[in-house]
Amino acid sequence: MTDAPLDPRERSAIIRDSLGVGVATGAYGVGFGAVSVAAGLSVAQTCALSLLVFTGASQFALVGVVAAGGAPISGALTALLLGTRNTLYGLRMAPLLRFTGWRRATAAHVLIDESTAMGVTRETTEAARVGFLTTGVSIFVLWNLATFLGAVAGNAIGDPRRYGLDAAVGAAFLALLWPRLHGRRNQLVAVAAAAVALATVPVVPAGVPVLAAAAVALLAGLLTRGEPA
Amino acid sequence: MIWVAIVAAGIGCYLLKLAGLSVPPRVLERPLVERVADLIPVALLAALIAVQVCARGHELVVDARALGLGVAVVLLLLRAPFLVVVFGAALVAALVRLA
């Protein structure tokens, strides 16, 4: 990592790419807003999730568990488990970004999949910061605006099942899972986790099947010691 | 209860992010921890799909949602963007229910 100043042309290229990712990702917020009110959350609760939690998969998970009739706390636990991957992103980004104090505390809020992806490949601290912050901040602004629009629209149309919005939740999870299905181990874990969840649905309170499936990840991690990812 | 869950998830998810930027890498960067952390999203998302699509209360059912998921698979194979996948699945489920 060097402190070399950033060439203005490289800087505009990074900003352009990052804004592109920011606009494309921020727009998903419409889907989250619509799905969240379909799950029974109010517009205010939906917007609070996007403002406070701000990590897409965790937000979808919380409203998904609530939509399935689970206790909100089971939803929050699922959201936290999904949020653990951001900790790993942070470990990777910390030596690149080299933020301290209030800058680090602020940057942490926009530490998500996309901002990490747009920052982690850079050669200098300044380039990493430009990619990370441009992506993270543009997604934050657009994701929250889009959430509000989606929630208001979702609220206005009445019974969400008539528009198939309950089916949209499963599709959203699948789209988030899709890029992670590389490799035999990940595919087996996905199938086993789905099987555990379905097998436990009839016998445990709603929300618990998803948490039970997390055990599959733990078990697979322990058993596949030494195998390449 | 929902508000408690929202605030708890918000604080927790933020602290998980901040921890990553603040903790010395060696504390967490072990092969087992990394492997499990990589697999947890896979397991949770797969379980969420299964429950979201097949469960109605404590029953397992196959209905329009399953068809919506099938449509999502096709759209993902065609590399459709996220919003097309999500609303494509909704549209097909809605149409099936009309029929």
UniProtKB/TrEMBL annotation, chain A:
Membrane-related topology note: Multi-pass membrane protein
The keyword Cell membrane appears for this protein: yes
Keywords, comma-separated and alphabetical: Cell membrane, Membrane, Transmembrane, Transmembrane helix, Transport
Domain of life: Bacteria
Pfam families in UniProt: AzlC
Ranges that cross the membrane: 21-54, 60-83, 132-157, 163-181, 188-220
UniProt subcellular location: Cell membrane
PANTHER family per UniProt: INNER MEMBRANE PROTEIN YGAZ
Family: Belongs to the AzlC family.
Full protein name: AzlC family ABC transporter permease
Protein source organism: Nocardioides mangrovi
Lineage, top ranks: Bacteria, Bacillati, Actinomycetota, Actinomycetes, Propionibacteriales
TrEMBL record, chain B:
Membrane-crossing segments per the record: 36-55, 67-96
Pfam family, one: AzlD
InterPro entries per record: Brnchd-chn_aa_trnsp_AzlD
UniProt keyword terms in alphabetical order: Membrane, Transmembrane, Transmembrane helix
Lineage per the UniProt record: Bacteria, Bacillati, Actinomycetota, Actinomycetes, Propionibacteriales
Protein name per its UniProtKB record: AzlD domain-containing protein
Lineage: superkingdom: Bacteria
